Amino acid sequence: MKLSHIDKLESESIHIIREVASEFVNPVMLYSIGKDSSVMLHLAQKAFYPSKIPFKLMHIDTTWKFKEMINFRDDIAKKYNLDLLVHINQEGVLNNINPISSGSKVHTDVMKTQSLIQALDKYKFDAAFGGARRDEEKSRAKERIFSFRDKKNRWDPKNQKPELWNLFNTKIDQGESVRVFPLSNWTEIDIWQYIYQENIPLVPLYFSKIRPIIRRNDMMIMVDDDRLKIKENEKIEQKKVRFRTLGCYPLTAAVESDASTVEEIIIELLESKYSERQGRLIDNDQIGSMEKKKQEGYF
Amino acid sequence: MDIETFFQNQNSKKQLRILTCGSVDDGKSTLIGRLLFDSKNIYSDQLSQIKIESEKYGTQGKQIDLALLIDGLQAEREQGITIDVAYRYFETEKCKFIIADTPGHEEYTRNMVTGASSSDVGIILVDATKGILDQTKRHTFILSLLGIENIIVAVNKMDLINYDEKKFKDIIASFKNFAGEFNFNLQKFIPISALVGDNVFQKNTNISWYNEKSLIDELEGISLNEPLEEEIFSLPVQFVNRLSSDFRGYSGTITSGKIKINNEVHVFSSKEKIKIIKILTPKGESEFAVKGQAVTLTFDKEVDISRGDLLCSVKNHNYFLSDQFASHIIWMNKEQMIPERNYIFKFINFQTIGKITDLVHKININSFEKIASKFLNLNEIGYAKVALNKNTIFNTYKNNKKLGSFVIIDQFNNQTVGAGVIEHELRRASNISWHQMSINKNLRSSINGQKPCVLWFTGLSGSGKSTIANIIEQKLHKIGKHTYLLDGDNVRHGLNKDLGFTDVDRVENIRRISEVSRLMVDAGLITIVSFISPFKSERKMARELVESEEFIEIYVDTPIEECEKRDPKGLYKKARSGKLKNFTGIDSNYEIPSSPEIILETKIKSAEELADEVILYLKQYNKI
Predict the structure, then answer these.
(1) A20 HSE (CA, 13 A, CB side)
(2) Cα B283 to the center of its chain, rounded Å
(3) From A188, which residue of chain B is nearest by alpha-carbon distance?
(4) Angle B554-B559-B565 (CA atoms, 0-180°, nearest 5)?
(5) What is the mean pLDDT of residues B81-93?
(6) A123 and B CB contact within 8 Å
(7) Is the pLDDT of residue B433 over 50?
(8) What is the residue range of A118's domain?
(9) So what's the pLDDT on residue B255?
(10) Same domain flag for B401 and B494
């Protein structure tokens, strides 16, 4: 029997997840509701089958996620009987931080990065799984699978510990932590292929449907609730769209698409010319912006 | 395209992990950029961003600088060099590739080793205008050390030498000349130009004299060894699944061979034989499983198996259970490797304290010469003997890469400081066993109504260690206790007269003192040790040699200004004037103890009062 490329990736990820469960005292899996998180969750279930996942899941809720994402999250938690924490940066809520008037940079910093750090400190997690992949973005291509964070949750790209074979350095001091990326070596097409083969449930926003959108900064933004104020020169259109990645709805661009099944998405992806992070407004703030965010503690 | 055909194609693609290496300007990043570009694995928005950045940082004039696709970190884009390992992904009709892009500079050897550790194939780039360089030799050596069986030597920048066949052949000849001894399974030479794309994907008429495969065809053609029929089954136990009360399974990734339901396997540590009842693979319950799969197994009986153990074939297995082995070690940290210092050794499913007892030689990685040395510096490779505190299950790297490799971690700053590949087991440990004598330390010390222990004084020179230690010994003697005082200066006149004051010698000095004090404790004595002992790791080593309640660390806390003022031996003066090198507190570091049993502050109390504090401590803890 020969293992396929996907089989190898699957076993590698399971190995990483089990290693964390063996070596850390209080790990947590960051669950962002997106497709990569769904795959990661699926792999964690396999790693410990027939037992339950022996750690908590956590969602950092910016309060600006699509409504469908939140519904999906709650359904999945119930269906699989997951131990799910939801954390919101209440300080940010009090100061009315939002992606529209505060801007994407401040919103992401306060409601995602700061919020994540708050939650990690609050629950004293020593390892946090994230669903990031190396093919997503250039600075992620250089990050270790076990990526060390100091007491202030910072990443130091120039001082990463060498990572050889599949021997992972799990030694940390009190207050320090590790971010672990079991999907490091998966590509976008691998993720979709796996979702198809394993029949992994996804948020319906990934699939094409007629949705209300406006056009802003050359991007199509979905009108998910009345917090998105429509400007005079904008008008709501009904378009057949879907999302390649999911984040805060005013920061996530829709793409026009007819793909309404996983098969159709894969075919679309094979023919597409644009990479997936293109739908994310936050990466384009400045050259090297993802690397800066990661140094500050972003996933 | 029809989706089922697509998946069939995807599932028939093999995965190949490749590493590109070569000297600094040999064009590695350009080659990888070319591979991504020609395999159409670059999206148009990425390309447009690269166009913007090419104008800002590019080195190719108005042309798109393909290297910018690769050099991910901003600092690198600005400096134009690759400083870390980056992983890239692309696929062709037949293959899915994972490329480790590693830096060429000598100071980044450790990054190259990192990239090589998980690669199946190494592409060694040679700049046709420069020929074989020291870096070429170094990288070839590292590939061979890390057991990479397939290498492709890509002679790049052929466009700059007018596709000269003779120059290409000269380069091949000089490569074969030095690499003859390395025994790669596959070794190919291809003339290419990454910049224009010659022979990377497409064969090119520019090089009409070259009739063999292009680089990508050669890569696609490489077949990786699948597990043989008779290969020994091995599974290092990673995780014990007892999370629900009615289930007990053992999880891990199979590192060699295969298994079927009802097979008997051997629990390595206990030698018990058990029968496999269930195999849970990622694809569900299965009749069998093979190398590379992460599985959970259940057995016919309950036995004691924990993380760190190994399940393997009953017959003909070739694993060792030992605490010593010989290995090649690559040092990866700025702080040099010191023999006899305790480090953490991490294996695939187990970690333990151990030390490098003996550096047999280090290797000049440019000329492959063996050089005598006591220690290893950053990026140096040596051949050494390793002794662990616990018996560990391992194999040679040649037999099983996963069970023959380890990393070395610093106990205090948690850095990964080195990596090693096991060459063979050393049997010395099992031959010399500890003699069990009939009179033991409890019997010896009970005669005097005392419990043996080590009073380990540490502190700067002139802090007052010896003065206080001496008073304590007198006081203990008066009340009829048997003691022995080991003083730094006195021991250096005899037992340790061959040692100087470099970091390496200081470590050896303390190691010998620790062993001597262990014997003294075994003899039933209250052993008083008075040494500067500046390093945490050596004090920890001394502590670990005796029972935990037998070691009492006493930090004599005197500020350096005070010591320098006292300067009873005139040593600070000498050190300040440069006549004395490696003097603790001046040009050699003193690491303050983080949790000593006793702290004596000499600025507040007299030596007499401080000695009484220690006596009181001994009474409180029933030592006397």
Answers:
(1) 31
(2) 34
(3) B89
(4) 120
(5) 76
(6) no
(7) no
(8) 5-190+288-296
(9) 94
(10) no
Domain that holds residue B285: 234-313
Task: For chain A, positions 2-31, list CB contacts with chain B under 8 A.
Answer: 2-12, 14-15, 18-19, 21-22
Q: Please compute the mean of the pLDDT values over residues B32-49 and round it to a whole number.
A: 75
- Measure CB to CB from residue B282 to each of A11, A134, A139 and give the nearest one: A11
Average pLDDT over residues B352-379: 88
The CA-atom distances, in angstroms, between B604 and each of B346, B375, B561, B601 are: 45, 42, 15, 6
Shortest distance, CA B417 to any CA of chain A (angstroms): 8
Could you tell me the two tokens for B616? 């009181």
Q: Enumerate residues 6+ apart whose C-beta is below 8 A from A226.
A: none
Residue burial A171-193, b: 16+ Cβ < 10 Å; e: rest: bbeeeebbbbbbbbbbbbbbbbb
Q: Is A80 on the interface with B (CB under 8 A)?
A: no
According to the 3-state scheme, what is the secondary structure of B164-214? CHHHHHHHHHHHHHHHHHHCCCEEEEEECECCCCECCCECCHHHCCCCCCC
pLDDT tens digits for range B266-279: 998 888 999 999 99
Does residue B57 have a pLDDT over 70?
Answer: no
| Candidate from B20-34, B187-201, B229-243, B326-340 with smallest mean pLDDT | B20-34
- Catalytic site residue B533? yes
In this prediction, residue B437 carries a pLDDT of 64
Give residue for tokens 């660390």. B553
Do A24 and A66 belong together in one domain? yes
Choosing from B367, B533, B537, B577, the catalytic residue is: B533
A175, A167, A117: which is closest to A145 by C-alpha?
A: A167
Do B545 and B575 share a domain, yes or no?
A: yes
Of B549, B552, B571, B550, the C-alpha closest to B560 is B571
Tell me, yes or no, whether B436 lies in a domain.
no
Which among B114, B238, B244 has CB closest to A163?
B114
The domain tally of chain B equals 4
Asked whether residue B286 is assigned to any structural domain, the reply reads yes
As averages over each run of 10 residues, the pLDDT of chain A (299 residues) reads 88 98 96 96 96 95 94 96 95 92 90 93 94 82 88 83 92 92 93 94 96 90 89 91 91 92 88 58 50 64
A196/B contact by beta carbon, under 8 A: yes
- Helix, strand, coil percentages in chain A from 3-state DSSP, rounded to 5: 40, 15, 40
- Asked if pLDDT for residue B53 goes beyond 90, the answer is no
Sign of CA dihedral B25, B28, B29, B31: positive
Instruction: Specify if A185 maps to a domain.
Output: yes
In this structure, the answer to whether residues A71 and A167 fall within a common structural domain is yes
Same domain, A73 and A158: yes
Place of tokens 């007629």: A210
With beta carbons less than 8 A apart as the criterion, state whether B544 and B353 touch. yes
Residue B259 CA to residue B313 CA, distance in Å, equals 9
Indicate whether A236 and A279 sit together in one domain: yes
Does one domain contain both A98 and A209?
Answer: no
Residue B520 lies in a domain: yes
Mean pLDDT for chain B overall: 86
Check whether B560 has a pLDDT greater than 50: yes
Give the Cα separation of A38 and B42 in Å (integer).
Answer: 26
